[in-house]
Design brief:
The complex is a heterodimer of chains A (177) and B (323).
Chain A lengths: L1 E4 L1 H18 L6 E5 L3 H17 L5 E3 L31 E9 L3 H13 L4 E9 L11 E5 L6 E6 L1 H4 L3 E6 L3
Parallel strand pairs in A: 2-3, 2-4, 4-5, 5-6
Antiparallel strand pairs in A: 1-8, 7-8
Helix pairs in contact in A: 1-2
Chain B lengths: L19 H14 L17 E6 L5 H12 L3 E6 L11 H10 L4 E6 L4 H8 L3 E7 L5 H15 L17 E5 L6 H12 L3 E5 L15 E3 L2 H5 L4 E4 L15 H8 L3 H4 L7 E3 L12 H4 L6 H20 L5
Parallel strand pairs in B: 1-2, 1-3, 3-4, 5-6, 5-8, 6-7, 8-9
Classes of the chains: A alpha/beta (177), B alpha/beta (323).
Chain lengths: 177, 323
């Protein structure tokens, strides 16, 4: 297993992403952050509080479960659902930033876009990820990337975050490690 | 990516097919799916391309419509089959009907049948998933699940948990009142509510209690006024007059006076109990119109919750690969 990002690296990456979100959206008006469970949800909360700190305001943040929209449901036993919580203002006409830990095939994000479509019609949707490990299978890209990490298919990217795993770190391992 | 896949049995024939964890998983999944009913677009693509057959040998309004709505919200194709007007009236057996449906590619069969054990038999004949929607006087598991869901939502919520998600029913006292003998709803509810930790009291005249009831994990009480004093929820059962071949009580009026729920009876309750009824209601017989429409009554909410609970069952049984 090889360490890729330390706790301080992750904090710096999330701070930079927060600044980029404000810059690209020319402020925080109509901004809504939606994390994809489970780690994306916590990353979204951290980015929201960082943006709130920089721009002095409260950014609506929620969580979006994509399980029911997955395209690989039939290849495995049914999975338990995770919560979907949309902030009180909804997503109609908002600038929605999806947040996930790792961008890989792009299929999760496709499912997330479908799930969003059922909840409303955002003005635009952007994507923030902590790690982009390549190997896309769909025409999807991230607007904000913590770190581009070239990987081989058989490698596994492990993202640990304080809220769930007790520490912040990113590492690469072989599949059977 | 989480791999904590579920390990439920293939069919839902009886509450005995479920572990406590399975039951809680169904209720928690239903809680999440209930939000779909509030969304602007009440449709999920999850069961696209799957075919669900509603095979109903007995009359039903809410169960059939509820399963149909649940399957459609998950994008499954639904075929409704009712025995009336089908080849059943020409003498086709359940087995032949089931094999025909299987050849048509049914992934799940939802069966309502007058014979106890019909769903078990059907499960041995077909490859698809079988969901018991009521078999004779045996069981009606999805009704019990929606009752438990409704009770939990009302009596287990707290400030940080608006719908009681993740909670079981421990500490609650629930009375099930009326025609226990003919009631599959009562059987399924006794099993499920007990599994989830509730204390159950059956209230009925001795003639409407089944043989062997002393083996059930329940208390038995013949005095409704006494039973209602300390209970958190009252589940009224419909008098199943169509299944009664002899006299089980002297008169409807006497039954109503002793075991019906009305405003005076509610005065004996110390806590305001939640009022449930699986429907259809015989107003004025087992429950007065006033009590059925009281604020404590959640009878219509039970119907709405039925859709969410059945969506959860369909998703968990059909939404993934089963080895």
């Amino acid at each position: 297993m090889k360490a890729v990002l330390s706790s301080a690296d992750i904090t710096r990456a999330l701070t930079r992403i927060s600044h980029e979100i404000i810059e690209k959206n020319r402020g925080t008006a109509e901004l809504v952050l939606l994390g994809i469970p489970t780690r994306g949800t916590h990353l979204a909360e951290r980015i929201a509080s960082e943006i709130g700190r920089i721009d002095a305001g409260e950014i609506p943040v929620g969580t979006l479960d994509i399980t029911l929209h997955r395209d690989d449901l039939r290849s495995r036993p049914p999975r338990p659902l995770t919560p979907t919580r949309i902030p009180a203002g909804g997503i109609d006409g908002k600038r929605v930033v999806l947040v996930d830990d790792v961008l890989y095939s792009g299929r999760t994000i496709r499912a997330a876009l479908d799930a969003l479509g059922e909840l409303g019609r955002p003005a635009l949707v952007q994507l923030a990820v902590l790690i982009d490990r390549g190997h896309r299978e769909l025409p999807i890209r991230a607007d904000y990337v913590g770190k581009n990490l070239p990987t081989a298919h058989e490698e596994v990217v492990r993202v640990a975050i304080k809220e769930i795993d007790g520490e912040d770190s990113v590492s690469i391992a072989n599949a059977h490690e | 990516m989480s791999d904590n896949a579920t390990a439920m049995k293939k069919h839902l024939l009886s509450i005995n097919d479920l572990t406590r964890e399975d039951a809680l998983l169904i209720l928690d999944t239903a809680d999440e799916l209930a939000r779909v009913s509030d969304a602007p677009i009440k449709k999920l693509p999850t069961l696209r391309g799957r075919t669900v057959v509603n095979l109903f040998y007995e009359d039903s309004t809410r169960t059939r419509i509820s399963f149909e709505a649940a399957a459609k919200r998950l994008s499954a194709d639904v075929i409704n089959f009712s025995a009336k007007g089908s080849s059943v009236s020409k003498g086709e057996s359940l087995k032949d009907t089931a094999l025909t449906l299987q050849s048509m590619g049914a992934d799940a069969v939802i069966l309502r049948h007058g014979a106890s054990g019909a769903a078990h038999r059907l499960a041995q004949w077909t490859n698809g998933v079988v969901i018991n929607a009521g078999d004779g006087t045996h069981e009606h598991p999805t009704q019990a699940l929606l009752d438990a869901f409704t009770i939990r939502k009302h009596l287990k919520r707290s400030s940080g948990n608006a719908t009681g998600v993740g909670e079981d029913l421990s500490g609650l006292r629930i009375s099930i009142v009326g025609d226990i003998l003919h009631s599959r709803v009562a059987r399924s509810n006794v099993l499920l509510l007990h599994l989830l930790g509730a204390k159950i009291t059956l209230v009925a005249p001795p003639t409407l209690l089944p043989v062997g009831v002393e083996e059930w994990p329940v208390e038995i009480c013949y005095d409704f006024n006494e039973a209602i004093e300390d209970c958190d929820a009252v589940m009224m059962l419909r008098l199943q007059l169509e299944r009664m071949k002899s006299a089980f009580f002297p008169s409807a009026r006497e039954y109503s006076r002793l075991f019906g729920l009305d405003r005076e009876r509610l005065l004996h309750a110390r806590k305001k109990p939640l009022i449930l009824h699986p429907g259809p209601i015989n107003r004025g017989l087992e429950i007065s119109a006033e009590s059925a429409d009281a604020v404590e009554s959640v009878i219509l909410e039970q119907v709405a919750n039925g859709v969410s609970v059945r969506m959860a069952v369909l998703y968990l049984l059909l939404g993934g690969a089963h080895e």
